[in-house]
Design a protein that fits this description.
About 35% of the residues lie in helices and about 25% in strands. By secondary structure, the chain is of the alpha+beta class. It folds into 2 domains: about 70 residues, Roll (Membrane-bound Lytic Murein Transglycosylase D, Chain A), CATH 3.10.350.10; about 90 residues, Barwin-like endoglucanases, CATH 2.40.40.10. It has a 6-stranded mixed beta barrel with strand order 4-8-5-7-6-9. It has a 3-stranded antiparallel β-sheet with strand order 1-2-3, with no helix packed on it. The chain is rod-shaped, with a radius of gyration of 39 Å. Keywords: Signal. This is LysM peptidoglycan-binding domain-containing protein.
């Protein structure tokens, strides 16, 4: 009798433990963050969260990039999406920020372009200040100072499309006697073989 009683108690205990192991977790444990996500609390499962939000486990798995029908191991503190709102909001925000950045860049470019005033077409010659014994460097351009005072920043677009930004820092013999000519400082090795050309000139400042 004692042996049968012990066996009976053993099976009763086993059944009780099975019931606890397979009892469903609380469905209301997850904390709703109010943005389409919940924060996992101890005792939560994908089944309990899905049931609490009226969706299937497979739909919840798919929404969170999990393998459908896989073993969904989650931990307290983990964030789980319960609808597409959170992901959609993030995507929309990223897109809006990208568009805003692009618009700002475009506006900046347009402003820079608009601030340049076209002065007209000029004859362009080249000289190397170093060859003439000058230490003025290659950032300058000689011009008729009654047309372009010293310090005027010019954007010179050559006939071949080359763009040069130069600051008026001198007046040479050619430029002084020819108001429609600019003498651009450039190393001898870089001076174009054609020597003299024409260019569209814009005043930057």
């Amino acid at each position: 009798m004692k042996k049968n009683a012990l066996v009976g108690l053993f099976f009763a205990g086993a059944l009780a433990m099975s019931a606890v192991a397979f009892a469903p977790d609380k469905a209301d444990a997850a904390v709703d963050n109010g943005n389409g996500t919940v924060t996992v609390e101890a005792g939560d499962t994908y089944m309990s969260i899905a049931g609490n939000y009226g969706m299937s486990v497979s739909a919840l798995e798919q929404l969170n990039g999990r393998e459908i029908g896989g073993y969904d191991l989650i931990y307290p503190g983990e964030t789980v999406s319960v609808n597409g709102t959170a992901q959609q909001t993030t995507t929309t925000t990223d897109t809006t920020q990208a568009q805003t950045t692009a618009t700002a860049t475009q506006t900046s470019t347009t402003t820079a372009t608009s601030s340049a005033t076209t002065a007209g077409t000029y004859k362009i010659s080249f000289y190397d200040p170093a060859v003439l014994g000058s230490n003025m460097g290659y950032s300058g351009v000689a011009a008729n100072l009654s047309v372009f005072p010293k310090g005027t920043r010019l954007r010179i677009t050559l006939a071949d499309g080359t763009v040069l930004d130069r600051t008026v820092n001198d007046t040479g013999t050619f430029a002084y006697s020819n108001p429609q000519q600019l003498d651009v400082a450039m190393p001898s090795s870089s001076i174009p073989s054609y020597g003299i050309t024409t260019a569209t000139v814009q005043v930057l400042s």
